[in-house]
């Protein structure tokens, strides 16, 4: 009876899901233009990085990192995306690379040891960049519907088994677990495979625009197919990635068109690398205004300090130090939402701005956003462990100071406060 129920449920799901096959959304040669990463996406990327580095160390040989950065710079030079792309080489023999929200890229040493040519490495990195360009971290409305269908079918399976005579709780659980696994293959993975094909397609033209041979992508997946062997129909159906042999044929099919872009790129020469963002140099007048605002702030005259930093915002909107002080002054006079908005902008400009992250953690804690506060405090301490010691005595975190997460961040991973940090980090809620 158990298998009859499963067949009925699976058949019903197949009828529903067969009505719609996910299609590749981009034409060959199209490079999507994504919006900048949000501060929430950057925070999520930081969490993934922290999780990785707890279990896998960074590769210490600089030759690996330099190679990845060399290839990545050329790809990013032709990428229609602004912002930072933090990249980490992990000391593990796994053959893999991945990207997360916030444009974080992780490459495993095992992949670099295996791929001897930069053209092949470019194929992998272009594929990972393309996931972010195509916004593959966002679910479509149909994916949300199919996720709901999966959950509904799983519950229906449990109800069917529970209504049978002599059914046990264990049988109900087994049926729900089996149904969920089957439905995951039916409703989720076709989209996963389509997204992989989209990333392969976009990445093929991205690497060609950067002057890397697109046929290297076809060769890469052909070699992988030979190493891993043929993939059966069932395995391919349930896999999140298409079989390597299929990916090789897909790349070869589109490589002829991409080759034209590759030859054009070779004639133009190496892509012009995007220059690093220059630090803003304030004028003497702006420096004096900042010093006045800083002294007023230190003296507790927050309204007067706010007037000065507001003037600086009009005169020099790219003066990040003044923006940071303005955000804290806003918080001091109770305008926490405005302060949070400014601090988010600073982090989007520079995800490694530990001071902005620390101050955003303070504001979030004061607004009752405890999980968000812990995320940004964790990121600040990860960038600069000295903030852990500073946070222990900061009254802004009074609502968090006895939680296990706060104690873990501030005690296990902290260093003594030194130098400029103590002078430039502002406690918002003086008690």
Short characterization:
With 431 residues, the protein is mainly alpha-helical. The chain contains 20 helices and 3 strands.
- DSSP, total strands: 3
Distance between the termini: 67 Å
For the residues shown, what is the average pLDDT?
79
Radius of gyration: 26 Å
Count of alpha and pi helical runs:
20
The biggest sheet amounts to: 3 strands, mixed
Helix share of residues? Answer: 55-70%
What labels describe this entry?
globular; 3 domains; Serine Threonine Protein Phosphatase 5, Tetratricopeptide repeat; mainly alpha; three-stranded mixed β-sheet; 431 residues
Architecture overview:
The chain has about 425 residues and is mainly alpha-helical. It folds into three domains: about 70 residues, no CATH class; about 170 residues, no CATH class; about 140 residues, Alpha Horseshoe (Serine Threonine Protein Phosphatase 5, Tetratricopeptide repeat). Helix content is about 65%, strand content about 5%. The protein is built from 20 helices and three strands. A three-stranded mixed beta sheet has the order 1-3-2, sandwiched between helices. A hairpin with a 3-residue loop joins β2 and β3. α13 packs antiparallel against α14. The radius of gyration is 26 Å and the shape is globular. About 5% of the residues have low confidence.
Question: Topology of this structure?
Answer:
Blueprint: H1 2-17, H2 39-55, H3 62-77, E1 87-90, E2 97-100, E3 104-108, H4 109-114, H5 118-133, H6 141-162, H7 169-187, H8 189-209, H9 215-228, H10 233-238, H11 244-268, H12 284-298, H13 302-315, H14 320-332, H15 336-349, H16 354-366, H17 370-383, H18 386-392, H19 404-412, H20 420-424
Helix pairs in contact: 1-6, 1-7, 2-17, 3-5, 5-8, 5-9, 6-7, 8-11, 9-11, 12-13, 13-14, 14-15, 15-16, 16-17, 17-18, 17-19, 18-19
């Amino acid at each position: 009876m158990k298998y009859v129920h499963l067949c009925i449920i699976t058949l019903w799901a197949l009828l529903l899901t067969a009505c719609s096959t996910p299609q590749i959304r981009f034409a060959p040669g199209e490079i999507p233009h994504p919006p900048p990463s949000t501060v929430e996406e950057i925070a999520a990327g930081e969490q993934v990085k922290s999780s990785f580095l707890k279990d896998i160390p960074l590769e210490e040989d600089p030759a690996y990192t330099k190679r990845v950065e060399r290839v990545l710079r050329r790809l990013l030079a032709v990428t229609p995306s602004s912002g930072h792309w933090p990249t980490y080489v992990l000391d593990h023999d796994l053959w893999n690379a991945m990207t997360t929200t916030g444009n974080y890229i992780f490459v495993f040493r095992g992949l670099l040891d295996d791929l001897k040519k930069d053209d092949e490495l470019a194929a992998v990195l272009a594929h990972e960049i393309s996931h972010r360009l195509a916004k593959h971290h966002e679910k479509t409305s149909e994916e949300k519907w199919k996720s709901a269908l999966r959950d509904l079918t799983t519950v229906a399976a449990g109800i069917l088994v529970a209504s049978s005579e002599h059914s046990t709780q264990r049988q109900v659980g087994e049926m729900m677990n089996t149904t969920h696994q089957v439905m995951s293959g039916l409703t989720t993975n076709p989209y996963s495979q389509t997204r992989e094909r989209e990333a392969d397609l976009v990445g093929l033209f991205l690497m060609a625009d950067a002057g890397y041979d697109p046929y290297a992508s076809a060769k890469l997946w052909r070699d992988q197919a030979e190493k891993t062997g043929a993939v059966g129909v069932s395995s391919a159906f349930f896999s999140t990635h298409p079989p390597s042999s299929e990916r090789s044929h897909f790349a070869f099919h589109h490589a002829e068109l991409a080759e034209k872009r590759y030859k054009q790129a070779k004639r133009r020469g190496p892509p012009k690398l995007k220059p690093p963002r220059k630090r803003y140099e304030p004028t003497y007048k702006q420096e004096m205004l900042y010093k006045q605002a800083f002294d007023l702030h230190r003296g507790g005259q927050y309204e007067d300090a706010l007037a000065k930093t507001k003037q600086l915002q009009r005169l020099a909107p790219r003066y990040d130090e003044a923006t940071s002080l303005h955000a804290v002054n806003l918080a001091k006079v109770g305008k926490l939402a405005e302060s949070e908005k400014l601090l988010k902008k600073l982090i989007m400009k520079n995800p490694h701005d530990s001071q902005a992250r620390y101050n955003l953690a303070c504001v979030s804690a004061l607004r009752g956003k405890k999980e968000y506060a812990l995320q940004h405090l964790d990121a600040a301490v990860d960038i600069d462990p000295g903030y852990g010691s500073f946070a222990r005595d900061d009254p802004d975190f009074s609502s968090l100071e006895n939680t296990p997460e706060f104690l873990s961040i501030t005690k296990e991973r902290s260093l003594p406060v030194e130098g400029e940090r103590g002078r430039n980090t502002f406690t918002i809620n003086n008690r």
